[in-house]
Amino acid sequence: MKHSTIATLVLMAACAALPVTAMAASPRSPQVIVSGGTLQTYLNGKGESINVGSDQVDIQTWKSTISGNSALTLQISLGGVGGNEIGLYGAHSHATRFPIFPATAPAGWFAVVSLRSVAPKLIINLFDEVGQHQTRTAVTNFEIDNFGYYIKNVDNGVGHTEDGHNPNNSPSALTYAGTGDNTGCWWLCFEDRLYGDGGRDNDFDDAVLLLESVNPTPVTKTTWASVKARFR
């Protein structure tokens, strides 16, 4: 692990983002070797029964729900993003990226991301830890039915959830299906260094996102305190 703490972003959605195809939930083949024990220890601590070396699933892109109006809330609940930028990109135009969290975002900052069927297709509002609005980004056209996540490191190297957009087709993110209380959710775990980078250690713990599905009715009763409590 290259940072003192794992940057965890919690995604809570009234209508969750889903894998692009059902077949994408099949096991990743071959499974990627995950070095070190930090990621395993972290997921164990969240009550997961996931083996990080053998339970990887082949999900590399996502889409909004059938409603075409997914409201997502992402929060940095631990030690910030460690100098990495986290954001979204359209799968057919991966060179165009839309940051959610800047590299300087500390713990406690959160963003509300709307994926819409009408323009603007993507709206990102960023807030600090006390709820003060920082920035707003509105994107007229965005591939809400086929998008990925990216991580940009301090050397401006960019890793995508799609292996094919990375050097040597190497993985920059691994996806796991949640278990127990997190059944129906997905863990997205990033390695922030690229293939051929001497600093790459394949620990996949440099940014960890939980994509959590919350049904429309209960979501109206969900509070930030209850979400944060799950990750303390």
Distance between the termini: 20 Å
Indicate the low-confidence ranges by residue numbers. 12-16, 213-232
Strand content: 25-35%
Which strand order do you get reading across the main beta sheet? 3-13-14-15-1-5-8-9-10
Instruction: Count up the domains.
Output: 1
The helix/strand series, from N terminus to C terminus, equals: EEHEEEEEEEEEEEEEHH
Inertia-based shape: globular
- Nearest-integer average pLDDT: 79
Helix content: under 10%
| Largest sheet: number of strands, sense, barrel closure | 9 strands, mixed
Rg of Cα set: 16 Å
Give the structural class. mainly beta
Q: How many β-strand runs?
A: 15
> What's the helix count?
3
What would you say this structure looks like, in words?
The chain starts with 7 loop residues before the first strand and ends with a helix. The protein has helices at 38-45, 216-219, 224-229; strands at residues 8-13, 18-19, 56-57, 62-63, 69-76, 85-90, 97-101, 110-116, 122-127, 133-139, 147-152, 158-160, 173-177, 186-190, 207-213. With 232 residues, it is mainly beta. The protein contains three helices and 15 strands. The longest helix has 8 residues, at 38-45. It has one domain (8-215). The chain is globular. It has a nine-stranded mixed beta sheet, with no helix packed on it.
